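Hi team,

Filling in the usual template for the complex we talked about on Friday. All components are listed, including any nucleic acid strands or ligand strings, so the model treats them as one assembly.

SUBMITTER: L.P.
PURPOSE: interface mapping
COMPONENTS: two
RESIDUES: 572
SEQUENCES:
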Amino acid sequence: MDHSLDTAENSENLKRFVIEPVSRVEGHGKVTLLVDDNNQVQQCRLHIAEFRGFERFIQGRPYWEIPILVQRLCGICPVSHHIAAGKAIDMISGVTELTESAYKLRLLLHYGQTLQSHALHFFHLSSPDFLFGFESDLTNRNIVGVIQKHPELALQGVKLRKYGQEVIRVICGKRIHGTGCIPGGMNKPLSREDKHYLLGDTEQMVAWAECAVKTARDCYLANEPFHKNFAGLRSNYLSLVGNNGELDLYHGKLRLKDANGNLLFDKKDYCDYQNLIQEEVKSWTYMKFPFIKTMGKESGWYRTGPLARVNNCDYIPTPLAEIARQEFVAYGGKEPVHSTLAYHWARMIEVLFSAEKIKQLLHDPMITGTDLIVQGKRQSEGIGVVEAPRGTLFHHYQVGEDDLITKANLIVATTHNNTALNESIRMVCSQQINGREISEKVLNNIEVAIRAYDPCLSCATHAIGRMPLKVEMRHQQSGELINRLSKDIDGTLHR
Amino acid sequence: MCLAIPGQVISINQSAKPITAKVNFSGIIREVVVEWIDQVAVNDYVIVHAGFAISKLDQQAAFETLQLFDQFDQQQE
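RESULT (copied from the run log):
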């Protein structure tokens, strides 16, 4: 990889772009392609607006405020941040084990969140690409087109998401920024009425989630040779895995597999993450590039999220999702499934797992238990890690004797997948760019590749699901602009 | 990390397919899909992901969040 251009052209502008609240919502997604003398794409850079200074912002605040604070600022997946911070704060409170009821309520909350986040992503954002084709007319390639052509499917997607939101609402209250996790437990029990209300729909949700897996699988397999290689990468995979090797999105130990499916490490305590993972800083972006320390930054990058989790686990502890996993694994053969577009298939397997898990939890008598808080001896440090919908989420805090945070470190899913995102775009460009021209097709395909990872893109408020994207082709050494194409939110193209 | 700031709905286009709204994010107006949140009304605050309003905030929660962003920006300067 050539790093000669790893210097921001105008660092002053870069800083402003990142910080100003206005540009926070203004931005086009921006991709820079660096090509050599033979017009071969050597490197791709996806510029995602990233907040630097967030960790510093948390410093000086009382530790018990953190689960509420992070969910306010990170409104795209507030529940995941709330739970990860909650786990870290448990540790600071000296609590190593929650009561059974509090633990199960947290699981219910987490699986409700996963269900709604995955359903939103697949049905609303991604299914139109598959159902109508990556190149199809933008006026149809959206959820309204899906409603018209596949009304039943669209309705199921909407209702699955709604159900996940209802699970969150009954636990956290009406406001999305309600509370749930408090140091050492949960702040209110699940009422019997709410339990029965949710129980009424569980069978239906599991059935629809099964359909969702079939839809995602069939979409993928319908054009398998193309989908398999589209933005395809061979990578390492990192995820939490439960104590017995099962898929567990709330808690577990870290597992890393290589591209051949061999274990590179397993059963690693996530509190030791700083010895395992290092983050590289590059001058052209505030988003860091994590890699496995012992492997180095060239080969130590990895992917997280649904694809990593379904590839990494030994089994899924619910019956229907396990059947779906076996089919997925059989498709991969001896290796993990590497196709970037298989993220969608894996994501729907997790939807089914979440639906089954919610059903199991609601049938568990402990779910309405009222013994919800444990106390412990105050510690000076806490680390909480969960498998958030988009991937492994790390929260790490240190606290002074005055209860104020002295240091914070967060690694979010989109950051873990940073190298992979850039590499996937590079694959699309290498496969599809001939010469010095960026076509509309390339632009559309870059968008599909980015979407597979479901990055948190709150900063670019893409109107109507259309990604405003600017792609520039520059010479690798000189930095000279060779070609550019941008697409506005209304689909208008500019050269 | 990508932080989501609340935007305020300034008008709704019920006849659009999907239903959209013009939303004001600290002075920047954007058109977003509001099909998936219940009973959205003018002046409501919403959180937007990839062009879709994914949740509604009550006014107090929105103010508290915007206040945090203000503090955040002040710290940056």
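MY TAKE: Chain A touches chain B through 50 residues (CB under 8 Å). The first helix of chain A runs from residue 11 to 19.

Thanks, L.
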